[in-house]
Design brief:
Number of strands: 14
Shape: globular
Largest sheet: 9 strands, antiparallel
């Protein structure tokens, strides 16, 4: 379910053994943390007309990626994006940059030294490798069944758009490009367009639900 799902009732279903099973979920408020970030470069908070236009072009390009419905090529749990994955988080935190409110944090941040290899979490195809205003050097991988992984703020990109990658393959290196205060990996997931907490799909098998979303 998407990070910004409105409060209220949501009916869900799955197909199991040829039978349709339904449930009604009640979505309420969640106590996400509040995060205050100070940036030295105010240009990344108060965007010029040119930077705003660039950001909108990049958002439009990225938005087209969520519609993909190729066959699934992943299994759960996903492989970690770093060989040694430190505690990460702040998914959903309400962020203030230089005192100004901005969109909630839609990924998980993992601190690591600059240059640390970033790995593909599953087999897939690189659908976009680019240098963006906010996310810096970024790699988007389509793993099928609507699952897209994103690795942001890289110091370098080791794959190109259209490249086929394997689970555990290096795709770039940790950096601090784009809107970042220091070296770290911002790792995010979209499943059929929904912004979900990466921690739900990473980790020991017994802690991850093996699910298949119905069409």
């Amino acid at each position: 379910m998407d990070l910004l799902q409105a409060k209220g009732e949501v009916r869900i279903f799955r197909i199991r053994g040829g039978a349709r099973e339904e449930a009604l979920l009640v979505v309420g408020a969640y106590p996400y943390e509040t995060e205050h970030i100070t940036l030295k470069d105010d240009r990344q908070v108060e965007l010029s007309a040119a930077d705003l236009a660039r950001s909108r072009r990049e958002q439009a390009e990225v938005g087209k990626l969520w519609a993909s419905r190729s066959p699934g090529r992943f299994s759960l749990p996903l492989s970690p994006p770093l060989t040694e994955l430190p505690p990460g988080g702040r998914f959903g935190s309400r962020r203030f940059f230089n005192g100004q409110p901005r969109s909630p944090h839609s990924g998980a941040d993992y601190r690591a030294a600059a240059g640390t290899p970033v790995l593909a979490v599953a087999d897939g195809r690189v659908v976009l490798a680019a240098d963006h205003f906010f996310s810096g050097k970024s790699v988007f991988i389509d793993h099928g069944d609507g699952l897209v992984s994103m690795s942001f703020h890289l110091s370098r990109i080791d794959v190109a758009t259209g490249t086929e990658v394997k689970r555990g393959q290096p795709i770039g290196a940790v950096g601090a490009t784009g809107r970042a205060t220091g070296p770290h990996l911002h790792f995010a997931l979209r499943w059929r367009g929904a912004r979900i907490d990466p921690g739900l799909l990473l980790g020991p098998v017994e802690k991850v639900a093996k699910v298949s979303l119905a069409q």
